[in-house]
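FAQ: What does a multi-protein file look like?

Like this. Sequence, then tokens, then the next protein.
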Amino acid sequence: MEKKPQFGGPRRPSAPRPKPGRRGRPGDRNAKDPYIINENIRAREVRLVGDNVEQGIYPIDKARKLAESMELDLIEISPNAEPPVCRILDYQKFLYQQKKRQKEQKAKAAKVVVKEIRFGPQTDDHDYNFKLKHAVGFLKDGAKVKAYVFFRGRSILFKDQGEVLLLRFANDLEEYGKVEMMPVLEGKRMSIMLAPLKATSKKEQKSEKQEDAPETAKDAE
């Protein structure tokens, strides 16, 4: 009678084997290090671009030696190209420039705030001045202002009055905003769009004050 092999205890579950082609490698990118550089670049040859090198396709060893001779880093910037595209730069400086560029792009893509102000075709002066004051505040805060006159029923006959009202509104706000869209009638609404003027920098304000300052006794002589 055959003896069954005895086990000293329960076997530990073995870790799953990585699938072919899915093994990790030192050059894999992560959130902290978004680019593959230097010895971690796995391609046999790369295309070098940039102002500080003779552009073309280089064997990876030659490209690395060229980067070392310049005391810079070989950075893989387009890994999916055939062959991958690389640049020779200071890696830390390169990362700083990339972050700065992304920050500038986000600032440009910031959402524009649009504040709406509604008038009737026969708005009285009290209501007009009240809404004008609000518009000044919106423009100072950097928001756009869309003012419109809403015509109900037969009040569409007073569309000329509505246009005059909106042009007066824009004229009264010329110190704070510029007309981005002239009065346009869309259905029962006539609207005008105002964009805030760029704020004068402190340096410009100081320069203007110096130009406007009275001449000194020495200058007068």
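And here is the next protein:
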Amino acid sequence: MSDQQDWVRIEREFDAPLQLVWQMWTDPELFKQWYGPNGMSVPTAEMDVTVGGARKICMAMQSPERSMSMWFTGLYKEVNAPHRLVYTESMCDEAGNIIPPQSMGMPDDFPDITEVTVELSEVGDKTRMIMVHVGVVEGTAGAGGWNQAFDKLVVLLGAQLPVGG
């Protein structure tokens, strides 16, 4: 029996208003600016942020040695603006067809479908975020990628103008 949990939970506090942090998760153009680990860009973010709506995201990396892209798809299960967002995530091809995660080098026991829950709350003039990704094991590269993405989000939020004056 392993003492590793099969989910990663990350809590962060952002020096930004709740509505702006919500937009970072739900506006495709803003999402593309911070999502993914260091060295990855997000050239495609299709997001129908409604219950039952689909999402399709491409993370890409270009280096002198090679270029790589990873596609993800899923459905929004819960959208409670601006406090709670729940969606599924699966690896897919460019057309959105789900592919086995092992075909992208993931471990044999990596699930075909994972689930992300984002909860946002106001703490004074800041926003607390709790993100849980069920199916991504704590301490893995996936968990590290989330932390790198949230570090990029901190920088991006610091560069944003306040919402609603």
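Q: Is there any per-entry metadata?
A: Some entries carry free-text notes. For the entry above: The helical segments are 18-26, 28-34, 141-158.
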